[in-house]
Design goal:
Number of strands: 3
Order of helices and strands: EHHEEHHH
Shape: elongated
Largest sheet: 3 strands, mixed
CATH architecture of the largest domain: 3-Layer(aba) Sandwich
Low-confidence stretches: none
Mean pLDDT: 80
CATH class of the largest domain: Alpha Beta
Distance between the termini: 55 Å
Strand order of the largest sheet: 1-2-3
Helix content: 55-70%
Length: about 110
């Protein structure tokens, strides 16, 4: 299935819409990228991820299948209150914006002194 690619700033603003999009249709994927970086992340529904992991697990040799819990590299499960996590993300985002604004303010002051 085709993936939608979004800058991380857009993904933050559309988090709830992205959630609905990936859980509504099996296999929907949203790829998130950061400007100036070649690193990317993908958001899929937990059910789809579990299905992919099960398919891969079936292809593993029997010795590796029995060796315990196996997950795709980079996959994670977030446990906790979604509102709390979202509040933390927003607080971090505000902190980053303040830092950027302060840096720009310093640059403007330096330019005015010249």
């Amino acid at each position: 299935m085709a993936s939608e690619i979004l800058p991380i700033s857009v993904a933050r603003k559309r988090l709830f819409d992205i959630f609905e999009q990936v859980v509504r249709i099996k296999g929907n994927t949203i790829v998130i990228e950061r400007r100036g970086s070649d690193r990317r992340a993908a958001i899929v529904s937990a059910g789809y991820l579990e299905e992919l992991e099960a398919k891969v697990r079936l292809r593993l040799p029997a010795s590796k299948r029995k060796s315990g819990v196996w997950h795709m590299s980079g996959s994670a499960r977030i446990i906790g209150d979604a509102a709390t996590v979202l509040d933390q993300v927003r607080a971090h985002d505000r902190q980053l914006r303040r830092r950027k604004a302060d840096a720009l303010d310093l640059e403007l002051r330096d330019e005015k002194r010249r």
